[in-house]
């Protein structure tokens, strides 16, 4: 469990750019054997969404937002020894997922966390990064033949790029299931599931975990 006071302490340190103290908090939580999904949802995602909101309302600079993003992405490295230790100890399910950010979308921490959640649940998870050109994404899907594709978008003005990616995937892989999510949906666009067949909007990491279990 992450208390509100601990979250506020972490957020303050994050906005101050205090990477060392943020790492201390994360490591202490890992030492207490916190569930990785809880760490991702209640500390990383919650703080990044708040920082994104501050940026959207011009409360912090682009440089500050980039600093916070870089620190958060680096902190994921503290999680990986435990994540892969657990993954190795669990049987895989022989299913593969490819996770990508929409074209022009450079915020990739959310996509990385989604890929990690799949990995925790026994999937072969491939995260192909930020701002992946659509044609390269299609080639990768053709080569890897995943069971599922996930697309992440963090900034609302990249929603047209997300839709272009969805249209391209659906046009080339008619029966491939697609998940979409990310902070951009806080500003609209959740109707996207009705516009592109076989596409599911995932509003949270909890919902993602439920979908994986179904």
TrEMBL record:
Spans traversing the lipid bilayer: none
Domain of life: Bacteria
All residue ranges annotated as the B12-binding domain in the record: 94-214
InterPro entries for this protein: Cbl-bd_cap (IPR003759), Cobalamin-bd (IPR006158), Cobalamin-bd_sf (IPR036724), Meth_synthase_dom (IPR036594)
GO MF annotation: an example: metal ion binding
One Pfam family from the record: B12-binding
Matches recorded under Gene3D superfamilies: Cobalamin-binding domain, Methionine synthase domain
Protein name: Cobalamin B12-binding domain-containing protein
Organism the protein comes from: Desulfotignum phosphitoxidans DSM 13687
């Amino acid at each position: 469990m992450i208390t509100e006071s601990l979250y506020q302490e972490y957020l303050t340190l994050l906005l101050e750019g205090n990477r060392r103290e943020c790492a201390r908090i994360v490591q202490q939580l890992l030492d207490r054997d916190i569930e990785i999904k809880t760490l991702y949802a209640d500390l990383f995602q919650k703080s990044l969404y708040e920082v994104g909101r501050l940026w959207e309302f011009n409360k912090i600079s682009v440089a500050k937002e980039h600093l916070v993003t870089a620190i958060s992405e680096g902190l994921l490295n503290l999680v990986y020894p435990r994540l892969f230790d657990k993954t190795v100890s669990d049987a895989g399910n022989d299913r593969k997922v490819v996770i990508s950010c929409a074209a022009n979308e450079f915020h990739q921490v959310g996509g990385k966390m989604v890929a990690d959640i799949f990995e925790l649940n026994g999937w072969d998870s491939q995260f192909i990064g930020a701002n992946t050109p659509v044609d390269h994404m299609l080639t990768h899907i053709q080569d890897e033949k995943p069971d599922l594709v996930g697309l992440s978008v963090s900034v609302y003005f990249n929603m047209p790029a997300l839709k272009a990616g969805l249209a391209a995937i659906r046009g080339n892989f008619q029966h491939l299931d697609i998940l979409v999510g990310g902070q951009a949906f806080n500003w609209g666009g959740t109707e996207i599931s009705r516009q592109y067949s076989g596409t599911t909007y995932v509003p949270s990491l909890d919902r993602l975990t439920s979908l994986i279990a179904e």
